User: Which sequence fits this backbone?
């Protein structure tokens, strides 16, 4: 299937990273700092495109934390595998009547690189934005492309770091962050929340009797069973 047309698969690819609504992280903040300084733009962002909105993981010069998808330049960028470069949005029929062009923040020029996952889905865009017409040079676009690759690499590393290497279960840090999001969601919608705890009793006896490789296999099997019986987050 063409990954550019597989919206369901694209949204699942985005969901796998569990990045939406997370707090600031240095790796992504450094990227937008560098993009803003090197390309000398008033605005730039790491934008992740959901079903109905784009959400900014990191941004500079942009006040809002998200915008509707239907006015998002980055939502247009993810429709292609090539960079989206706009010299003057007021003369581009796709964007000339866009409220982000006719009103604040008065976007005029834009360069966006799709954030493409290793399995080929565009989950968002790294973009540089100016308030005056500007032709981003091929060299500038190539710089932005390299930074986009860094962003995707950080997302991959973040996903690896969020999992225990043995069981594949969430690491403690990832669990604490995920639990915090669920608590906030329960408060927001006034819904009950439950927590189930499991303990493998007398597990030391397994290691002592059958050695650690057998104990590791017990942990992997137990974690896989818990995962198979749980719904997706």
Assistant:
């Amino acid at each position: 299937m063409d990954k550019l047309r597989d919206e369901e698969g694209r949204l699942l690819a985005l969901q796998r990273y569990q990045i939406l609504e997370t707090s600031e992280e240095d790796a992504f903040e450094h990227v937008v700092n560098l993009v803003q300084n090197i390309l000398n733009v008033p605005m730039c962002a790491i934008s992740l495109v959901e079903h109905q909105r784009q959400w900014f993981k990191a941004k500079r010069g942009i006040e809002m934390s998200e915008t509707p998808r239907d006015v998002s330049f980055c939502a247009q960028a993810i429709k292609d595998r090539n960079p989206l470069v706009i010299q003057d949005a007021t003369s581009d029929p796709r964007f000339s009547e866009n409220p982000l062009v006719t009103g604040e923040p008065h976007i005029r020029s834009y360069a966006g690189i799709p954030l493409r996952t290793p399995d080929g889905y565009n989950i968002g865009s790294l973009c540089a934005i100016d308030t005056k017409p500007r032709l981003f040079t091929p060299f500038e676009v190539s710089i932005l492309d390299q930074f986009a690759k860094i962003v995707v690499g950080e997302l991959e590393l973040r996903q690896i770091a969020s999992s225990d290497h043995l069981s594949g279960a969430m690491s403690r840090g990832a669990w604490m962050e995920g639990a915090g999001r669920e608590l906030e969601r329960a408060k927001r919608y006034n819904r009950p929340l439950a927590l189930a705890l499991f303990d493998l009793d007398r597990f030391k006896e397994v290691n002592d009797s059958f050695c650690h490789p057998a104990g590791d296999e017990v942990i992997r099997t137990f974690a896989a069973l818990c995962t198979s019986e749980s719904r997706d987050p």
